[in-house]
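Why this split exists: single-chain examples teach little about how molecules sit against one another. For that reason, every record in the complexes split bundles all components of an assembly together and asks for one structure covering all of them. Below is a record exactly as it appears in the raw files.
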Amino acid sequence: MPSYKAPVRDTRFVLEEVLDIGQYAALPGFGELTPELMNSILEEGARFTEEVLQPLNQTGDRSGCTRDANHAVTTPPGFKRAYHQFIEAGWGGLSGDPAYGGQGLPHVISTAFEEYLISANMAFSMYPGLTLGAIAAITAVGSDEQKALYLPPMVAGRWTGTMNLTEAHCGTDLGLLRTRAEPAPDGSYRLTGTKIFISAGEHDLSENIIHLVLARIPGSPESVKGISLFIVPKFLVNPDGSLGPRNAVTCGALEEKMGIHGNATCVMNYEGATGFLVGERDKGLRAMFIMMNAARLGVGLQGLAISEVATQNAANYARDRLQGRALGGVKNLQGPADPIIVHPDVRRMLMTARAFNEGARALALWGALQVDLAHLAPAPEARQDAEDLIGLLTPVIKAYFTDQGYFNATNAQQCFGGHGYVRDWGMEQFVRDARIAMVYEGTNGVQALDLVGRKLAAHGGRALRLFLREVTTAVENARKTPATAEAAETLGCALADLQGATGWLMRSALTRPEQAGAASTPYLYLLALVALGHVWLRMLVVAERKLAEGGESAFHANKRITAHYFFRHALPETAVHRARVEVGADPVMALAAEDF
Amino acid sequence: MPSYKAPVRDTRFVLEEVLDIGQYAALPGFGELTPELMNSILEEGARFTEEVLQPLNQTGDRSGCTRDANHAVTTPPGFKRAYHQFIEAGWGGLSGDPAYGGQGLPHVISTAFEEYLISANMAFSMYPGLTLGAIAAITAVGSDEQKALYLPPMVAGRWTGTMNLTEAHCGTDLGLLRTRAEPAPDGSYRLTGTKIFISAGEHDLSENIIHLVLARIPGSPESVKGISLFIVPKFLVNPDGSLGPRNAVTCGALEEKMGIHGNATCVMNYEGATGFLVGERDKGLRAMFIMMNAARLGVGLQGLAISEVATQNAANYARDRLQGRALGGVKNLQGPADPIIVHPDVRRMLMTARAFNEGARALALWGALQVDLAHLAPAPEARQDAEDLIGLLTPVIKAYFTDQGYFNATNAQQCFGGHGYVRDWGMEQFVRDARIAMVYEGTNGVQALDLVGRKLAAHGGRALRLFLREVTTAVENARKTPATAEAAETLGCALADLQGATGWLMRSALTRPEQAGAASTPYLYLLALVALGHVWLRMLVVAERKLAEGGESAFHANKRITAHYFFRHALPETAVHRARVEVGADPVMALAAEDF
């Protein structure tokens, strides 16, 4: 059975030593987050996820969710009890708005906890995760009455939330959606239609479920410009907040999926269900994108979290499993064979994952800090910079982290040989669970298009210029110190690849948009590697300083080792991504569609 | 539900136009393989696999195999009937020895058929596939009596075969195995032990199952030098070939696996089972490797075959699924949206897979031809060259094809968005099925070690020198023609990367074996890309010649398009693999085992 140990020391390294979040103590929420509180959140979060949620992960996969004749959905054994413990301990409201009962702590600390939550039990984590997205949308565009009515029980976790976008014939292209919302005399709407792939759409964990649903009001344009967002509660809510009658929304079926069996993925039937417009008519997509952007960072975190837990288990197995002898001479004289961790190719897989995990953790927490700063930084320029940077890197984190999460989970499974392919060891579940993250909240290809089509171009390329400036400065500074000069040199080369590819893209895509489409995924990979190189350089600088000061030597010395692995093994890949950008769209587009 | 169309035209292109197998008509078996017979085998094979086997693939995954209280195993609905059709049509004996009832056709044609078989139903294909491995071992090291007794019903498919190597505590490192074989007074042995992960270990398809089992005879060395190979029939066989009593070998359990549910993966309990030594005592591993090498090429073919069928389905879906509009302007004016095949990033995934599939098909069939020539070529030097080349490329084909098969199946699933993650569409099954091929018959890491540790070094590097010579000649020739000069130039760069990495390896690994281990997988990828580049250059040369001659223009023009995609997108990756070889073992080995 797999195990999990939350990487608290590494989280603290990023928060305290790299991001130095103490410097933001003057900002709301950050002041409350004393080092003591932060440590107790991380330690308690570790204990809760390791002891309560992780033991339910494999059984959740086996049991899955079930739906009865009355369309009621039951989550796997233990989930309901664990969810009650989760909300009682207040885990869902860490960064919730205090006005609605939240603890008002920075996003950066709840993100740290979310990584643990997902590693321990990804299917479980999606129930509160989707609630956070729904809270974000209502917070952003809901009326004061809606906020007052819905947010307190959602922040408390007594009610959960969902996102209802997809229909059978439309996912990415929401302009095609058919769900209708007919105005009723009382100002509410009657929603009719079928939504699919609705995560946490129906279940037994919470007293109520607040569905956020995209639908078209008759007379609105038949395009993305005619879509509105509605609140459709499972149980209608009385003005005093108590539950009213059951609404006409039911779970029509549970999807049979490759993984995340512990999460109920529902076909949702709206049959004249009562809904309430949130935000402006026909502006629903914009509101949904508020949810979506937060959700995309959360999905990126899933890539990291599964990679982390899978790697931990592979490393444990590689230390235990005796098979063959080390190439450089016997290592385990007393035993019948050496542990397979002596084999360089096993280490190559583990080090590749480790270099990703630690870099991705730093980048994810840095990203979460930008989300905080975009709201809280005192200077408007600082807020804008933070918003630009996180906007630019959201599709990168979503797509690259989830591709790598799947890749590393696959490699972790590989370390188990045949044992990785059978269910008992739990490794194949990590792969199956990780797979969905490349798809939902916009496929990774859609992320790449968002990057090259929107994020790069926005405000005349302001966000990328800022990013390039920051990396350039970091490279120039690190070049001056012998201990970081080699890494800075490598990052400088990667940066040059990124600048070259960007220049090519700017020149080429203007005249032919297909150039941007063909370049999108290699370009995203290139930018992801530079962004990871940037955080790795920051981490190396810190580690070298601590080592020079004679600090906690083992931890920082290992950080240096992993940094060098990243710079020598992973980062040189930028050259091939640049080449794939600059080769242009012709090779990709030449074949006639009917000849595929 | 997924579909499958055997790529007969492409197989014929490789066999007739690229490999020109007509030139070998003087060799045994090749003479019988007239163009008419070849076409009828391919067309009939296509029909049989498309119409009989493919419809059982998804249901086989759903139903899986079941084991009853008497340890009897039932295959999924339809498998038994289909297997009988399979053997009645003689598909199992295509390249079987005519002395034992086989059709004596070249390996190259049965390999072409096997690709279709696996694409249509990988789990099914393993039952006859393992039989071929067992036949190969008995043919190579069995006594005349053993051959006469066991081979005819196995070649006919009435009996199937298995390979029994793995035990719970040992897979790669067979020296650790514990299964014992006690000599009995009648010259037979009594085998006692438990084997795991035994594909097709017990089932209802055949009258008898011939297990080939590795075990240790008391007094033999406690290492790989003390392992012998035994025939252990499920039903003992009377001297006249009729079935005798049930042997003491039973299926103790079916493994619950990630995929290939239609194949019975068994725990096999040997409880004093009667076995017969095959080949020499203590030389069992050598005999098993005869099986294994053939099996590794077969597993490589699984990578190609799943990639092919998954890509076909993705391309079909991408042509049908309407979602979004083309970047370069609306393509489907009448429809509500354009088919997603207009999107360059979707094409990128499809073209990457296509370039692999067509290249891998050519390389697999070229490899199968080398297997034939290693036995049949009149000149001893030609036999040796063929054996050297296929020995060198066996681990490359096994590991690279299966890694890419999984990668392409994952990308094909990605083209379906969320629909790829649910079971109905069948795409996630391709991913789960493809996953095992990276593991069994030696993990891909073990293949890489076999390449750098054994195959490169054998006979002073003779095989690689021959390979490099052949590629060099091809590059030099193709450089002279404008239509192939660009591709030749790119292959020349890749070849230089391979030569550089090889030189580094030769110099470095002698003094420190870990250098070879750390370099093994990147080196294997590098060699694989050059080998694919080599066959792609041959195909491009043929296509250009045919186009110049005004032949079948659409097919050959598309071949040119795909060739250029391969040379521009896939091949430049060699540089990063070379860099990863030459960075050496230090970054991989630096972290202490306990710090992972």
